[in-house]
Amino acid sequence: MLQISQCNSFSEDLSIVFLFSNKDLKNKISNSLFTREHLKQISNSNEKIDYIKKGEFLAFAIYSEQSEEHLRIAGAVVQQHIGQKLEKIQISGPENAVLKFSEGLILANYQFIKYFSKKDECKNKLSEIILSNAIGDSKVKEVWNTCKVVYWTRDLVNEPVSFLTAVKLAEEITNAGNEAGFSVNVLQKAQIEALKMGGLLGVNRGSIDPPTFTIAEYKHSKAVNEKPIILVGKGVVYDTGGLSLKPTPGSMDCMKCDMAGAAAMAGAIYLSALQKLKIHLVVLIPATDNRPGMDAYTPGDILTMHNGSTVEVLNTDAEGRLILADALTYADRYKPEIVIDAATLTGAALRAIGTHASIMMGNANDSYFNELEEAGNKVYERVVRFPFWDEYLKEMKSSIADLKNIGGPNAGMITAGKFLEQFVKAPYIHIDVAGPTWLDAKDGYRTKGGTGSGVRLLYQFLKNRTN
Description:
alpha/beta, 9-stranded mixed sheet, Leucine Aminopeptidase, subunit E, domain 1, 2 domains
């Protein structure tokens, strides 16, 4: 990952990105970098990015008076120019503009090249950015930690199940806890059986690998919340659909990403701990793969859940809600302030709003939804609130059990949320992240494959609550 360093002035020998406003252009850009004719061209231009090249030297001029998201995207654009050409680049300009630009540049420089046989041939050359005006160390550290955790989250989502089993996912979260200072307790299959988590155990019946239930907890000594905030993430490390087998290509072939909700929630506690947020946070990760082998659960099966209720299985590809339900019930023992889950739960969510936002719904106070929306707009991991009316629950009623695991053909993202609501007693928000957590093509600083979406959203939400 890119390193960040600082110096008090910029070097004329090193390529530079200069973030400027029209007001300070002529005073702050050195004529040794830009000719007077070029300065005039930039100052009269409506373009947001311009640059000149002198041999191997590049000088970028970017307007700093843009939105924070445009500055992140500008960072991604510059990365495309220099990622495989330069080892270092310096950045100068207003503090906030430099930080947001740097964030976009670093996130865009991410690569998942672990499995290439010739990594050196495709690895980005860029390894360091130098901030050439004084910025507070804590602010630089926050950008670096944020990008580091997003990288970590992307890696988890991009890893195939041949590496990232449920057991390995728990191990990766444990390692993060050891580094950042949060506790991790991993429940193994025998403990899960003792808890009678019928949803998690039912989905796991087709797998040769055991399930895990990971409990991560971070509590600052001066936490602002008396009751913990609980984050729950869907950890289906690979989803074939089970006996209700998915089609492929275009469906099953990318289902290593079905644990993106778990990765985002694990990333949120990892970043919160690194940043020492004054918060009490618990993350619950039920994890397994979903396969049609062994003693796989079948359409028509009745599962008895952790809370004692029964669920008729009509589609084994609606498995995420089954493992989440057990985790949501487990959350009750903490008497939480609020429970928030994140899951790549439904194709309906993706079809509804695409990859540009996540869907949220629930029964919590409006203030929580407003805070999530504000956080999402700040970091541009936007969330859109959907209705959560009780009429949607009618579709989840079974004629032979308490509930069934699928509803009708319409509003599947909402009926799934209403199903989950039945397993949690605390105020509750469900976030369906099926759209933005996986991309088939790069979009600015959001790289192809796992995007790490959700980490920055939840961190900003939690950070705002500590201010």
